[in-house]
């Protein structure tokens, strides 16, 4: 071999090794596995809510061919069901699945992104989120906390709750001990009720032993397995959570480090899991309600009388005005929701409502 | 260089080249671009419907990092708006976006997968598709034709149409010339109306010159730009398409050749684009209805009188029974839809309907 030939071989070898290294690095980049940890507020195998996180993680893994893997820790693992906001903010977890209104004691304006009393129905609210400015307002609230928030699944319409006695007037609410947390609880308190919060595992006993007179939980999709229909005959139609949207939280720094295709896979997996949960909740509600009706035909569905509804509305308006007066962003969000609801509801009334009225004739 | 050293270099070189080739081939496999062609029934830049296909293709491309590229041909390109079924079946196109009920003359049972008169609302119908057996029944109809069918976007509730004169009795329908295609047209014919189909571009003139007395199109989301509210004062609430779902078609052979991760990316892109279109249609309906009301405050929203609704229902039942008697699969689909609707509607009535009734008080 001449020196020239030797040099040529050497150059080729170097070039081949370089190319090889480049290809290897590119192949490794494409194969790099991103492992994210998600903390959910719910216990293990929590129906419907827990299905949403599993569905999301499965879509993300399958669409990314295994490059995006999301481990789900339920509350029994991380022990902090209402610590999800802080754990994702700090980076202890990369993602969370929870309810925005749980953080209202910490960041008051998070209140507005689950469901508001006398607010929008699920499809109306999705339209507000995606086409009416809702997403922008939600992230205006969350981004300063190093968080991104996304719709995380709708529980579907929530019922007004299970009552031991009929409610015929505002007077019947005075002194009424009811498990009803959050903003709706504040409204009930305005009317003289005694709202309390009780851990889910103790609700049945509390209602059975008359420690409380009434409670609201979700709706047929989740109420059936709690058994409330066996011990409280009156099931009131809803007003306080017409379409509660859960939320996915993502740590902003974690999001920024994902390649663009995995960001899109994660975004769409969360969006689709949210929509899917809404539809699953419709299904489970229909399914479970038909079972309650069959097993307990004496369950009585009641509307609160107009006098009570008017008083609830007035208390709601009063409390909202107080929030708006304290905080310009609260005022901006309230106005956006009220304007949007007014517009979309006029349509809902001549379409869905007119149809349901005609069908019920 | 000794011979031994020379051989060692040669061996290394061969090994490096082999490794390099392996890496390159693996990188190329991961980078292989799949280019699919989609034919849609709609014209170019058709609002809402056309947004669904663009949204789907964009998600697929971004989530696959460019490995799945879908070219959309609208009707002005392929010239066969109602030939989508055949073009995807034969493989001339890989995918389609259309409406299932357009194929009822060819495959009668395709009728059931868009929307049925007096049928389910959009969320109820999604629940039937995904959790109540609807997807399985739809593919029982489509698979024998080398096709897979997926929900492709909901138009939202469709209005009953624009009328020159009020309809006060079944007699008012006799001889009424109305643009109302499909199964709903057959029902109207049962009651003595003269249903016709007219190309969209000629609808306004036909209604203005009284060539027809009435027409149905979609709802505010698409009716506004057609201008019907300027020439027909009565806008009737709907009964015949309570939630029309469009469809994506995929050629079965094309689907089978996609790698598993791209199948999942395609499936989720179609599913999400469908949900998104539903929510966009809610938004556009609310938005456009508020504009119609502002510009034309004299538009009168009317319900057909109960007598007319009862007659329409009876004609619908009669025609459905005829279909069921001819075909066991038609009977199976009808029963699945009727049973599901009964169950889910009982829930809708105590939730959404009760809420809307209370809110309207």
Automatic annotation (TrEMBL), chains A, B:
The keyword Signal applies. Coiled coil: none annotated. Keywords: Signal. Residues 1-29 form the signal peptide. SUPFAM superfamilies: Periplasmic binding protein-like II. It holds the Pfam family DctP. NCBIfam families: TRAP_S1 (NF037995). This is TRAP transporter substrate-binding protein. It comes from Vibrio rumoiensis.
